[in-house]
Structures are given as structure tokens and as C-alpha cells.
Amino acid sequence: MAQRGDDLVLSSIALRIASLLVVGEGVLCGAVSSHARRWGALARPNGGLLLRVPLRGRRASFPVWYLVKVGQPAALVLAGLLAACARTSNPNETVLTFSGSALGAEGTLVAKQLQRFMQLNPGVRVELQRTPDDASQRHQLYVQWLNARVGNPSILQLDVVWTPEFAAAGWVLPLDKYGPPRAEFFPATITANTWAGKLYALPWFADVGLLYRRTDLVPNEPKTLEEMVKSAQTAMVRRGGPRYGIVWQGARYEGLITGFVEYLGAFGGRIIDDKGEVVVNRPEAVRALEFMRDELYGTHVAPLDVLTWHEEEARFAFQNGNAAFMRNWPYPVAAMSDTGQSKVAGKFAVSPMPASGTAPNGHSTAALGGAQLAINAYTEHPDAAYKLIAYLTAPEQMLERAQAVGQYPTRPALYDDARLRGAVAIPLDNARRAIESATPRPVTPIYTELSEILQIELHRALVRQAEPREALNSAAARINALIERTGMRKLMSGGAESTPSSTSPTASSTVGHGE
Ligand code: GLC
Q1: Of 135, 166, 218, 341, which has fewest CB within 10 angstroms of its CB?
Q2: Strands (E), 144-288
Q3: Residue 499 covered by a domain
């Protein structure tokens, strides 16, 4: 039995264990079982856990033993779990782990599709690994795992804005050698997943921001933001009217940026312009943020609660009949149409978020969101992982997803398929155009840091710790400093076009978090 004491590796192991513990025992088993034949653990009487860990070298993995102090009860539990995982693993089986969001009906659908994949591929077992639904929290967890070179989940669900970062960091594998059918997907979604000329993820579903409204309270689609607020106020004062006029995602996380992108566009503003200049503190942007703040403190159509809300809290409020309007993605349609759980089934419609009627350059804007599937660079089974990605992004599964969850396919051809009609809440042509014209967030490996800065500053203004102008000036200054520090200036643009052809990226989320 060899004992080694390399601090760096030890802290990486500790991190690995810590992140496994964060998400509980189900994940612990899922995360180690593909290695279970080579992982091992012995509980020591003094409360130590002797862990046998297969370390991955460039070509092969080799076992190393570590003594970890966790206290006796935890040591016993962990050793027991590892033993159980090892017992259930079959040496002839390839075990993949899959992580995905489980908003609304997503979780049930994924489990069903994975089951079918396993029936079609008897040598492969896929374990579902739950990750947080909050996009920013999921990102944090992935970064922790990948920094520690954990090979699970084997398939990563990436937000549309993460691919450049993960590709630049070497955390996901290029898919080109598998001959992915690029031309079958919306070009914008392929561009968003391409880094340095290589494709790193396949688009799974596309998200666009939508305005939901209660048709019994507001029969007509509002044509301007101002009209939307008026209708919200009218609905709220009706006898038996809802408590809230409009609900959105205002917590300090990625969802706040997507909502802001829509108000920003409504007033004719952007975060970064085509020349790569940071323009998020221009007057249009200040007015957009002022408008959001006025919804909270001026017209009072949005409850202060939204400052801690994500997608699901907003959905519950609307679904329970407590709001006249809601900003959200397409996924709530399925659950909200189900009379068993929804008080608004048959009483809501969706339309684009309107532009401001007072801004000459304002236009109706939908943020582009969505999920991609990529192969974890540390998985032992990249080929099987690709097989699963190809299966989940194939037309049949995508169509089923649209029918079960209401999420929009990333394959334009499906928009000519009659089976899609009824699955999405708006006419198919409108849905296709919504995706084609949706506004991407800046495409760059430093997106997460940029977004974090903006989240903090937007939230400061929305909780009235700072005036919108001051908050956005500070955001612009900090984003500019970040761009300079990482040498990203020439690669920046507000759209999805900034894909370099060959240069190696100079930054990843592993650097520069001390902004
Ligand atoms: C949805 C979108 C994603 C976005 C996130 C924000 O998951 O698909 O692109 O970043 O919401 O909460």
C-alpha cells in the first residue's frame, strides 16, 4: 500500500470529496461507481477514512491511498457507500453519469429517455446525477468538479453561455471526430458551441424569453412595456385580482442577466456593441434598469419578492393565479396547462416581451438561452458519452421533449413537423423566428466573470443600494478592467460572432475570480 503526500493532489481529492458530499449520497454513489472497481475505502478506528483513489495520468490511471480525517461516523458511512457502489458495479458494463436540469416536467422526461437509451444499448448504464436548477449554482459545481478532474457527470448540460469557457479550459472534448450533423441545427446554436474552430457541444433545446399573461385579466397582448405595466395595475385592482402585476427572475444569478437583456433591448441598449465596446452604462441601459426598479418601487407591479426569485418561484406564483404577467422561458407551458396542478390552465397566452414605447431604438427582445450537451474531458467513456448525446439530440427525442416539456427544438426541420404543433405555445413559425432573432449574451470564455459583475451591480440597483446610473458605471468600469486583464478585447462582441479561428484562448473561469 503506497502512501503519498502531495499537497496539491490531496487538496484536489479533498475538494472532490467535498463536492460529492455537497450533493448527497445518491451522487456519491453515482460519481464513483464507474470507478468502483478501483475505488476503495476503509474506515479506521480513529475516525480516518483510508481512500483508494484511481488517479488519472495521461494514458492510464493508477491507485493511490489517502488518509482523510472525517470523523468516525462519516468514515463508516462513506466506506459503506463505496462498498455498496463497488458491489453494484458490473465489470462488463459501461457506466455513464448524466446531469441535467429538472425544471417543471424535465426530470421525468430525462429519466424516461435515459431508460430507453439503456434498452437500446444493453452494455451501457446511465445514472442520473441531480444538479441544482439555478444556472449559476450548477456552473459553480461543475467548475469545482472539473478543476478537480472528476470524470462525472460524463455528459455535462452546459448553458448556452458556458461553452467557450469550458472549451477554453479544456474541460469538454471537441466533437468533430464523431462527425456531428452541424447543418441540422440552428446556425446560431452551433456558433455558440464552437470555440477556436471546433464544435464542443450539441444544442439540446433552445430557450427564448417570453411574456406570459392571463388572458382572463388582460385579453390583448401589450404592445409596449408601458402598456404592460398599465394592464398589470388594472388587473391588480380588480375585485379578486391577482396580488402581483408581473413576476420575473430577480435573484442575483444568471437569470437576472437574461431578464435585463430583454429590458435593455426594449430601450435600445446592449451590454457590448459590435465593436467590442462595453456600452452597458449608456443612457438606454440606465433607463432600462430604472424601468425595472420602478416596477418594484414606483408602479409596484412587481413584488419585492422577485429579488430572490428564479424561474420556478415565478412559475409557481403565476401558476397559482397570483400574477397577471410573468417573464419566463417556454418550459412552464406544459405544467401550467395541466389542470391537475395549475389554476391558470386555458387562461394564459404567451407573446414577445414588448419594447418601450418611449425609446426610439427600442425593440422587442428575447434573450437566447438553452442547453447543450458536452462530453466531460475526464470521462473514461467518451465514445459512449457521445452516443448518448447523439441520442438525446436526435429528432425523435427532441420532439418528445417539446411535447412533454414545451421546450423548443434546436433543429429547424422540426418546425415543419405537424407533431410539434400544439407542443409549443405559439405558432411554429413564430417560435422559429423567435429563436432566429433572439439576442445572445456576449460569447466569450470570460462570460461567467462578466456576468457575475453585472449580476452584483444590477442587484445593487434593484435593492436600492445604488442608483442605476452609478451601478452601471461601476459595472462598465469593472467589465472593462476584466477585459483588459484577460486580453480579451479583440475577441469581444455583443453577439455570437466572436469565434476565433485558431488562436488559443487566454482565459478561462479558472483565472481571475478576484475581480
Ligand atoms: C435557462 C436558459 C439559460 C439561462 C438560464 C438563466 O436555463 O436556458 O440559457 O442562462 O435559464 O436562469
Answers
A1: 341
A2: 155-159, 194-195, 198-199, 202-208, 210-214, 244-247
A3: no
Greatest Cα pair distance, the chain, in angstroms, is 76
71 and 110 within one domain: no
Contact 337, 329 (CB under 8 A): no
Domain encompassing residue 277: 208-367+442-489
Distance CA 247, CA 267 (A): 20
First CA to last CA distance, the chain: 44
What grid cell was written down for 208? 427564448
CA atoms of 255 and 257, how far apart (whole Å): 5
Residues 240 and 360 in one domain: yes
* Structural domains of the chain, count: 3
* % of residues, the chain, pLDDT over 70: 78
Q: Is the minimum distance from the CB of 468 to ligand 1 under 6 angstroms?
A: no
Q: Whose CA is nearest to atom 3 of ligand 1?
A: 369
Q: Are 186 and 180 in contact, with CB atoms under 8 Å apart?
A: no
> Which three three-digit cell numbers place residue 449?
466573470
CB atoms within 10 A of CB 82: 24
CB 374 within 8 A of CB 98: no
Ligand 1 in reach of 255 Cβ (< 6 A):
yes
Contact call for residues 336 and 328 (beta carbons, < 8 A): no
Ligand 1 atom showing the smallest separation from residue 370 Cα: 8
Nearest residue (by CA) to ligand 1, atom 5, is: 255
Print burial letters for 45-55: b (CB count within 10 Å at least 16), e (below 16): eeebbbbbbbe
- 407 C-alpha vs ligand 1 centroid, how far in Å? 12
- pLDDT (tens digit, 9 = 90+) per residue, 438-495? 999 998 899 999 999 999 999 999 999 999 999 999 999 999 999 999 988 876 655 5
User: Ligand 1 pocket test: which of 165, 189, 210, 258 has the largest number of ligand atoms within 8 Å of its C-beta?
Assistant: 258
Q: Is residue 507 domain-resident?
A: no
Identify the bridge partners of residue 63 per DSSP, sorted by sequence position: 54
Q: Is residue 496 part of a domain?
A: no
Atom of ligand 1 nearest to the CA of 329: 1
Conformation bin of residue 104: beta by default, left when phi > 0, alpha when psi is -120 to 50: left
Q: Is the CB of 355 under 6 A from ligand 1?
A: no
Nearest C-alpha neighbor of 402 from the set 373, 443, 431: 431
pLDDT exceeding 90 applies to what percent of the chain?
Answer: 68
pLDDT of 419 reads 93
Query: Is the CB–ligand 1 distance for residue 329 below 6 Å?
Result: yes
- Specify the 3-state DSSP secondary structure of 452: helix
Measured in Å, residue 369 CA sits from the centre of ligand 1 at: 5
Ligand 1 atom nearest the C-alpha of 134 is 12
